[in-house]
Amino acid sequence: MMSNFDIRAMAQAARTASRELARASGEKKNAALRAMADGMLHSCDKIFALNAEDVAAARAEGLTPAFVDRLTLNVSRLEAMARGLRQIAELPDPVGDITGMWRRPNGLTVGRMRVPLGVIGIIYESRPNVTADAAGLCLKSGNAVILRGGREALRTNAAIGGILAAAVASVGLPETSLAVVPTPDRAVVKEMLTLAGLIDLIIPRGGEELIRTVRETSQIPVIAHDKGLCHTYVDAGADIAMAEEIAFNAKVERPSVCNAMETLLVHVEVAPAFLPRFVARLVQAGVKVRGCPRAQRLVPGVEPAAEEDWDTEYLDLLLSIRVVESFEEALAHIARHGSGLAEAIVTSDHGRAMRFLREVDAGAVFVNASTRFTDGYEFGMGAEMGISTQKLHARGPMGLNELTCQKFIVFGEGQVRDSRR
Amino acid sequence: MMSNFDIRAMAQAARTASRELARASGEKKNAALRAMADGMLHSCDKIFALNAEDVAAARAEGLTPAFVDRLTLNVSRLEAMARGLRQIAELPDPVGDITGMWRRPNGLTVGRMRVPLGVIGIIYESRPNVTADAAGLCLKSGNAVILRGGREALRTNAAIGGILAAAVASVGLPETSLAVVPTPDRAVVKEMLTLAGLIDLIIPRGGEELIRTVRETSQIPVIAHDKGLCHTYVDAGADIAMAEEIAFNAKVERPSVCNAMETLLVHVEVAPAFLPRFVARLVQAGVKVRGCPRAQRLVPGVEPAAEEDWDTEYLDLLLSIRVVESFEEALAHIARHGSGLAEAIVTSDHGRAMRFLREVDAGAVFVNASTRFTDGYEFGMGAEMGISTQKLHARGPMGLNELTCQKFIVFGEGQVRDSRR
Q1: Which residues contact A415 (CB under 8 A, 6 or more apart)?
Q2: I need a labelling partner for B226 at 20 to 30 A (CA). Which of A150, A279, B167, B191 fits?
Q3: What is the rounded CA–CA span in Å between residue B162 and residue B166?
């Protein structure tokens, strides 16, 4: 499909808007967020009508029921989106925060101030709620945003984007502060990823292929979420009842999400007391279990785990279990196979708890709690723009602060520099 | 030139070393830094001998005297490098710093801990002092480093790198914590830039072409310093004597560096009282002056500035001057032509000072001080790994903290998540 859509002009308009947004007061941005929530509810009939067209087209194309379900909006989903925008309005404004200020011997006062990044491009797949969430987070953090959703949700996203932009304009902020790319043309995305002078950051949200393509193509910095291959390690001497609750929660509570456990590591000393009962509970909950030879010997019926199991993000009621000889072996397994999203230890030993915290290289490291807590809301950051599995700029759940950068500000009274001193 | 050098094996060894470095104590890293300083001084004859070979080859190739000077090591330069390493040892260790910790309603305690990035690749041009500075900063921040200097300094860098690595090994840290790429083969750099699983960050230091090539080629995140097109804006009602000192310092004290002023903006109200005397002082200091028509009318002898002057980083005793009608026009000029490195206002008006600080989009924004202070030492960060003109991860002078990332750490007592709540 070809289009003549001018993405550069859209990005240019966003850039211009971003300057005004950067100096908008928190009050004005909050008024915009409330107007966005109101606008979506007032214009819900229009959104539902266009969403019904997307849903009908998706059905006609034979897309899976799960896909169609994610695409479908109803009153309670729309209300949740509106509530999300109101919650963002309640969060503190990160822009203008001064995160430190110090005085130099020559009297200069140097500090760091949070400012917006500028223009953010978000490339995502089917869920239309991302349109509202991402628009709200970007607006609150003073960034203009260009939203490019999945082609199957094109009409829905365009409807939501138009309503949100009108709401932003209604409080006197630039209408081009947020824009939805109105075409599914892939050439437009490709061009978008070249606009390094106009767009400051690209956040892809979706499957592995989308993220790989964006990473390989983009000339703009990318923050992405790779995959979540999370471990729970049950240490020698761990509280067995606690370990069972934490590991069961990490696997079963919502297996389809990135912070669910995929591999359980169990110290050999605790394995005989822990594994048989725990696996029985898993099996009762419908979980299929694979394991190393030692795990298989301890629990009859466990299927053998192949080498690739240790690197597989199941996102399903499936678990691989490995019995390890030592704490060191658990650390080495995680270093080799973990995806850097979240890792947990269940232990009663303070020294090993602290070593695990320090040495495990992941966005979030837990002692005696479920990896399922890896989430912006659960961490108290209010709302999140996904979870970064990168190390640069943002690591772990990304809140409003991660959509800003810090500049140095310096107050002087006429100071000049003398390099010869 | 072709080589069979195995950069992947070097990066793999650095990756392995990085795990040990990440958990090394501050004391051990400081001992390594002092051993590195001692090693350079003890083995200075070897360094000077190999440096003399590089210098002779550079002369034979007909490289400029300025180039040969930058390449040449002598006792005082080597002592300065050793002193730099000892100063890094005195800085606080960023690794393990907990930058915030809070308790959630469910009793989880969530915090953020600084950890090393892992492996850093530095690609730089002729100055051999970068080899020691960069090695020291990376080691202190717990990162392994791969150093790829200019081909003209190959023998010098290899000598320094070998001595530094031996010093690191002498205190019991991995010898492969730092490594100098021993070949000028460009195919090796190209391959280095593809090793995204092994190297976490690339920092190019050098001219515009080097940085553009690295940015376009690298599959690893890059932090770079583009250029420094810095403005000083003299506001209406500014203290004229202060403005003269600040602007003179920004232009003349060291014109060849990125934080020197390239364009002076002067409010029309203050221009008649300020410009004639200031330009006379510049001319006396050997500065050539170009200006807009208004500046030319005020000061006879000023050459006309062409449109491209406003976008040119002179790095020389050359200044372009523009008289503006308003504060807004100054902001617009800076937004259009500034490179985002450093910008200064000289003003007596508090409101405009604060607007300039907030609204100017640059790594460092100054009120009543010279842009020449844009520097890690001057800001009190101790030592710097260059100045980032990017917004992501690090903006402005990069100190030790900017060579780390922050992970979330979570202490629980058995908490599990219930999404249905």
Answers
A1: A106, A107, A108, B246, B368, B369, B370, B373
A2: B191
A3: 6
Quick one: which H or E segment has residue B349?
none
Q: Are strands A318-324 and A288-291 parallel, antiparallel or unpaired?
A: parallel
Inter-chain contact A380–B104, Cβ cutoff 8 Å? Answer: yes
**CATH top-level class for A7-223?**
alpha beta
Q: What is the pLDDT of residue B172?
A: 98
Domain ranges of chain A: 7-223, 230-373
Q: What pLDDT, on a 0 to 100 scale, did the predictor assign at position B421?
A: 61
Q: How distant is the Cα of B374 from the closest Cα of chain A, in angstroms?
A: 9
Positive or negative, the Cα torsion across B148, B151, B156, B162? positive
- At A252 the pLDDT is 97
Structure tokens at A62: 């034979």
The predicted model gives A397-411 an average pLDDT of 96
CB A145 within 8 A of CB A178: yes
Region label for A386, one of left (φ > 0), alpha (ψ between -120 and 50) or beta (otherwise): left
Interface test with A, best of B108, B408, B419 (most A CBs within 10 A): B408
User: Do B7-223+398-409 and B230-373 fold alike per CATH?
Assistant: no
Contact A378 B239 (CB under 8 A): no
B34-61 average pLDDT score: 97
Q: In what order do the strands lie in the sheet with A144-148?
A: A178-180, A144-148, A119-124, A201-205
SS (H, E, C) A215-275: HHHCCCCECCCCCCCEEEEECCCCCHHHHHHHHHHHHHCCCCCCCCEEEEEEECCCHHHHH
* pLDDT above 90: residue A192: yes
- B7-223+398-409 homologous superfamily: Aldehyde Dehydrogenase; Chain A, domain 1 (3.40.605.10)
How many other CB atoms are found less than 10 A from the CB of residue A64?
Answer: 9
Name residue A124's beta-bridge partners.
A205
Residue B147: name the closest of B171, B119, B169, B116 by CA. B119
Q: How large is the ipTM?
A: 0.93
Predicted pLDDT at B216: 85
Please state the rounded mean pLDDT for residues B124-137. Answer: 91
Yes or no, beta carbons of B96 and A23 under 8 Å apart: no
Structure tokens at A25: 């007061």
CATH superfamily of B230-373: Aldehyde Dehydrogenase; Chain A, domain 2 (3.40.309.10)
Residue B34 C-alpha from the chain's centroid: 23
Euclidean distance between the first and final Cα of chain B, in Å?
A: 65
- Judging by DSSP bridges, how do beta strands A396-397 and A387-388 pair with one another? antiparallel
Contact flag A216-B219 (C-beta cutoff 8 Å): yes
Please, which residues bridge with residue A179 across strands?
A: A146
pLDDT at residue A227 greater than cutoff 90? no
Model confidence at A232, pLDDT cuts 50, 70, 90, reads very high
Reported as a pLDDT band with limits 50, 70 and 90, residue B202 is very high
Whose CA is closest to B95, among B8, B157, B28, B156?
A: B28
Q: Reduced to 3 DSSP states, what percent helix, strand and coil does chain B have, rounded to the nearest 5?
A: 45, 20, 35
Q: Is the pLDDT of residue B311 over 70?
A: yes
B364 contact residues in A (CB cutoff 8 A): 407-410
pLDDT above 90: percentage of residues in chain B: 90
Q: Tens digit of pLDDT for each residue in B323-377? A: 999 999 999 999 999 999 999 999 999 999 999 999 999 999 999 999 999 999 9
Structure tokens at B177: 């914590």
Q: What is the pLDDT of residue A421?
A: 61
Contact A417 B393 (CB under 8 A): no
Chain B CB contacts of A378 under 8 Å are: 104, 108, 417
Residue A262 has pLDDT above 70, yes or no: yes
Q: What is the pLDDT at residue A206?
A: 86
Over the stretch A308-325, which tens digit does the pLDDT of each residue have? Answer: 999 999 999 999 999 999
